[in-house]
Design brief:
The protein has 196 residues and is mainly alpha-helical. Helix content is 67%, strand content 9%.
Length: 196
């Protein structure tokens, strides 16, 4: 069997080799690794929607938003609506970012890993907050959604934020952050792969 000579092919193979380990650490370490996401979501809700959300709890990789919303007519209904959001859905790019960083094996890789993690956490929190607001203001039904006080245009903004936070940020942001943190590595890879 001939060894892989292309630097790009070696990098891709190294990334694929690191990916299962990075995925396992992310998946099983989610309660601890994503705890800052829960804290950021809690702070965002307290700052912008404190009248709707009384608190945010975490159980494993699920954040539970305890709301001030009632399941029915507010005068007669008892209890409060809670909204569960799976934190893994908004952070699934973290294992790929980690695998790419480890495969590049640059000096100071641990610093780049920490910077990328710190940059990606607020983006994950954005998606989590948007998901919770979407559940409260749109999918909970008209009786509950009417209690939020959101105007139609605000519901449209929430729907857009949810789509952006669920579909774009988790996939594009880790790759963009990795490229920004590894520009010199990519330049060297390009020059080594260029034909003489």
């Amino acid at each position: 069997m001939t060894p892989v000579r292309s630097p790009l092919a070696r990098f891709v193979l190294a990334t694929l080799a690191w990916l299962p380990l990075a995925f396992a650490v992310w998946y099983f370490g989610a309660p601890l690794l994503l705890w800052p996401v829960k804290l950021l979501a809690q702070a965002a809700m307290a700052a912008g929607f404190g009248d709707l959300v009384r608190g945010v709890e975490q159980s494993g990789a699920v954040a539970t938003f305890v709301t001030a919303l009632r399941p029915g007519d507010t005068a007669a209904a008892r209890g409060a609506i809670t909204v569960d959001v799976n934190l893994l859905l908004y952070s699934f790019g973290l294992p790929m970012f980690a695998a790419l960083t480890l495969a590049a094996h640059e000096r100071g890789w641990w610093r780049r890993l920490a910077i990328g993690y710190a940059v990606l956490l607020p983006l994950s929190a954005f998606g989590v907050v948007a998901d919770a607001l979407k559940n409260m203001a749109i999918t909970a039904g008209p009786l509950v959604a009417s209690q939020t006080g959101f105007a139609p245009w605000q519901r449209e903004v929430i729907a857009f934020a949810y789509q952006f936070g669920a579909l774009i940020l988790p996939t594009v942001a880790p790759a963009a952050v990795w490229v920004l943190l590894h520009r010199d590595f990519l330049e060297r890879l390009r020059s080594r792969s260029a034909p003489n």
